[in-house]
Every structure is written in structure tokens, then in C-alpha cells.
Amino acid sequence: MNTQQNNGKIFMQRLNYYWQSIAIYAVALVLYAILKGTVQEGELSMSVDDPLVMLLFAFVIMSGLGLLFALYMRRSIIITADSITFRSRHREKTIQLNQIKRIRLARERRDENGVYKIVSISTDVRRRPFRVRPAGFDNEKEMIAEFIRIKKSLTA
Asked: Which of 71, 81, 105, 110 is in the most buried spot, having the most CB atoms within 10 Å?
């Protein structure tokens, strides 16, 4: 979900991966339970001490906890005309454009669409660069266009 606020664009963290993994692991757990379980008197009974059942159940639980944590943190990136802000529930870090030394957009080699894998932002205030994975946020093409715009404004 991309919204505009105070002449800035907000890019929220994408949570599709968590939903998909929960669904896949849960379906695998149910299918395995049906195939491995026994039907007696019209009821399906399955062995909970089966290692594969426990492993699939652990994957479902861990994916669910990961989803709850991501929902709780509400990570987002806000790109305005003069700054980039990394925001979560507990922290907000703003980088002014005059603090940025370099923006590097690394392409994924196998993709013909020109999809970017990592955006690296080197600054004056931090030794290590900020690293952003645009595929992890909503509307990644618009986010990449914004980073390219900022990169061009830095070189101009």
C-alpha cells in the first residue's frame, strides 16, 4: 500500500511471504495428516508424536509468529523531496539528501525485467550503508523510480 503524506511517498513492508508460507505449511500438514492418519468410526485420528507432523506444525507456528512480529513492527520507508525515512513502531531514522554520499542499485543478473535486488545507500553519518530490498515493500517499481530520481539528483 503506497500512500502520499506531506509530499512524501510511503512504502509499507510487504507481508505476502508470511501468509503464503503459513498456507503452504498448513495445507501440507493437513494433507499429511489425512494420508497418514486413520479413520475409525467416522473420525480422523492422527499421531501427534510423528516427527514430520511436529516439524510442519513448528513451521506453521514460526511463520505465524513472524507474521505477528512484522504486523507489530509496521516497517515502512517514507521518501520525500529532501529526505528518506526508515520507520518502524519503535524507531525512526531520517537521512537528509545532503547526507547521502552514494546510492547503488544492484541488479539481479537472471532477471530480464531489470528488477533490482538491493539498494545500498552510503551516508556521511554511518559507516555501513543502509540496505533496502525493494521487493520486500509494496509498489517496488515506484520505490525504485524514487531511488533513481534521488541518485540522479545527487550526481547533478
From this structure: 105
